[in-house]
Amino acid sequence: MSEENKKKKLLEVKNLNVRYKSGQATVYAVNGISLELEKGQTLGLVGETGAGKTTIAKSILRILPDYAVETLEGEIYYEGKDILKLSDKELQSLRGHEISMIFQDPMTALNPVKTVSSQIAEGDRKHHGCSRAEANQKAVEMLEMVGIPGERADEYPHQFSGGMKQRVVIAMAMACSPKLLIADEPTTALDVTIQAQVLDLIKNVKEEIGTAMLLITHDLGVVAEVCDKVCVIYAGRIVESGSKEDIFDKPSHPYTQGLFAALPDLDKDVDRLTPIEGLLPDPTVLEDGCAFRSRCPHACHACREFDNELRELAPGHYTRCWRGLQDRED
Amino acid sequence: MIRYVVKRLVILIPTLLVVAIIMFTLMDFVPGDPAVIALGSGNHTQEEIELKRESMGLNKPYITRLGEYIGNLVFHFDFGTSIVDGTQIKTAISDRFPNTLKIAIGSILVTIIVGLPLGIRTAVRANTWEDKIALFVTLLLDCMPSFWVGLLLVLLFALKLGWFPSSGVGGLKYFVLPVIANSLGGGLAGFTRQTRASMLEVIRSDLVTMARSKGLSEREVIYGHALPNALIPIITIVGMRFGQMLGGATIIEVIFSIPGLGPYLVNGIGSQDYTVVTGGIIFIAFAFAIIMLLTDLVYAFVDPRIKAQYVARNRKGGRKDE
Q1: Does the pLDDT value for residue A6 go beyond 70?
Q2: What's the confidence (pLDDT) of residue B48?
Q3: Where are the domains of chain B?
């Protein structure tokens, strides 16, 4: 890759491996994930609970819990710097300032004993050296931007509803106009009626600031609405990646196909949905072969010997299934 | 807020009444005749004893005696007189309690000053060698009763090194050993462990991860975000420990011959001085209740959610400040 090309990429994750220790066992949470994100782009990470999406997100900010992590290997380049090699100080100036994160659960992410404005202002004071008054003024503006009246700035999190709290979290993440926003299931903890509002809000704010976004979700509807590129994650691996059109129009991996098949179709009157049978494989065992084969409708003995390499179906569209190319050729 | 305090003080009255009734009744069941004790040692004729019983009002029915005792307590704050030497219990308590309080306050301060930073440190360094050494030492200390620690301290620092006096009261240095003994034996180790547990829970929560993700330094994360949240359970523990230290002080006072409530109560128990024991314990219960009330009030300063509850009871609609 040329120097220039490297510069254009905002974020580049190469062969990321994360293992947790759980008692005596090792949990293989993330296995050789590689992904890229350009400025202003939105990349969706899709997958079921336990697939390793949040672990990927937290690795980028290096906020994984120390006591649980066994290994964190690979390279995570942010504007050419390897985040995994940064010192604590460098990391702190990156966090919240250049890269910030919206947490999954606004109920537990906010500090209950501090006013929301002080929590929003904190980042500004830290990174931009604003005075308390300036930062508070900015916090009020941020709150207004996410649709919370400024006079509520001095209230505490318990005085807000769930949707409002998530708005506060968004305001907090956006306070320093980050270049990269990691949104970890920003709408999962919210009521369906609020989800759309919050999603619109994130989209608008993102466009206003020109932030790139890594959106983690298990909701394909959300992906369709906001993402440019999609990575489908299964058992800590990317099983299919490509542009939104690639994934939605030509899903190739059986897991991706299963995800789409599981969506309820408004046009058809069916009694039962079609789930993907079975469960995620045991994360404490790293088996050879395709991790999805126990649940795959097309599985055969060849899947056991599968080399777990990505195959390029079309420019930019990859799948981790040996059948992928054959299907296309048939 | 003020209304809440007043309300809590009002609730205190029935609590203390119940304590008084239980204590009075219990002491009534204790074997031995107060009249005989009041007469002192030596042989007494049945007639003398009968006369004494009459003069002490012991022949009146239980309910009448209880009523009189409670009446005196509530309206005159009067605990009666010692049946052994006839002195006013009220005066004795007010003379002696300051010493007990000094030791208890000293002990709780030492506990907080040493235990809180140590608890935070071990939580931040959970499962490292520092934490493991601290665990070992605190477990060891937790197993040592305060009177034993007291004796060891006297042996080393008073008898061997001669740095501090071994008994009596006087300047500040007379309180050093008792305070350390009471703190070590009365829960410094436990307090450290509880602080660690409380901090650890917060450190592993989302709000701390969130604070880190904002780019705050580890110091700002621990002291600015984690500690204020961990303080709520810690304050409860401080309140309870303070009560314990008050009780522990009475034992320590006996060892160090400090004229506090301790020797007074212990002597009272030894000489079966019913009124002294009853009065002393009611007074300690009163002090404990006040401490717990203060603890509850401190919450409000730490946690806006609890403050909101206190305030919400006062206001009727509208989002106004207190």
Answers
A1: no
A2: 80
A3: 2-76, 90-312
Q: If DSSP states are collapsed to H, E and C, what string results for chain B? A: CHHHHHHHHHHHHHHHHHHHHHHHHHHHHCCCCHHHHHHCCCCCCHHHHHHHHHHHCCCCCHHHHHHHHHHHHHHHCCCCECCCCCCEHHHHHHHHHHHHHHHHHHHHHHHHHHHHHHHHHHHHCCCCHHHHHHHHHHHHHHCCCHHHHHHHHHHHHHHHCCCCCCCCCCCCHHHHHHHHHHHHHCCHHHHHHHHHHHHHHHHCCHHHHHHHHCCCCHHHHHHHHHHHHHHHHHHHHHHHHHHHHHHHHHHHHHHCCCCCHHHHHHHHHHCCCHHHHHHHHHHHHHHHHHHHHHHHHHHHHHCHHHHHHHHHCCCCCCCCCC
pLDDT, residue A2, reads 47
pLDDT in tens, B47-67: 888 888 887 877 888 888 888
pLDDT on residue A325: 60
Q: Does the pLDDT at position B232 exceed 50?
A: yes
What's the pLDDT score for residue A8? 66
Instruction: Please state, in angstroms and rounded to a whole number, the distance separating the CA atoms of residues B281 and B269.
Output: 11
Query: Can you point out the beta strands (E) in A50-115?
Result: 69-78, 81-82, 99-102
Mean pLDDT calculated for residue range A54-79: 89
Cβ atoms of B176 and B168 closer than 8 Å = no
CB B118 within 8 A of CB B134: yes
Q: Is A67 touching B (CB cutoff 8 A)?
A: yes
Which residues from A are below 8 Å from B228, CB to CB?
111, 113-114
What is the token pair recorded at A262? 């599981």
Nearest CA distance, A67 vs chain B (angstrom): 8
The pairing of beta strand A69-78 with beta strand A180-184: unpaired
Distance CA B113, CA A312 (A): 63
- Per residue, what are the HEC states of A11-55? EEEEEEEEEEEECCEEEEEEEEEEEEEECCCEEEEECCCCCCHHH
- What's the pLDDT score for residue B56? 80
Task: Identify the burial level of B228 via C-beta atoms within 10 angstroms of its C-beta, where 0-12 means exposed, 13-18 middle and 19 or more buried.
Answer: middle
Task: Note the pLDDT tens digit of each residue in B201-217.
Answer: 999 898 999 999 988 88
* Placement of tokens 């003994």 in the chain: B181
Give the model's confidence band at B70: pLDDT under 50 very low, under 70 low, under 90 confident, else very high. Answer: confident
Characterise B81 by phi-psi region: left (phi > 0), alpha (psi -120 to 50), beta (else). Answer: beta
- Which residues between 277 and 316 in chain B have a beta carbon less than 8 angstroms from any beta carbon of chain A? 302-305, 308
Task: Determine the pLDDT at residue B316.
Answer: 46
Mean pLDDT of A225-236: 90
Nearest to A179 by CA among A104, A127, A114, A103: A127
pLDDT class of A229 with cuts at 50, 70, 90: very high
Q: Is B229 touching A (CB cutoff 8 A)? A: yes
Confidence (pLDDT) at B314: 52
Q: Is 0.90 topped by the overall pTM?
A: no
Among all residues of chain A, which has the CA nearest to that of B126?
Answer: A67
Look-up of token digits 């919370």: A148
Please state which CATH number belongs to domain B90-312: 1.10.3720.10
Q: Give the number of other Cβ atoms within 10 Å of residue A141's Cβ.
A: 14
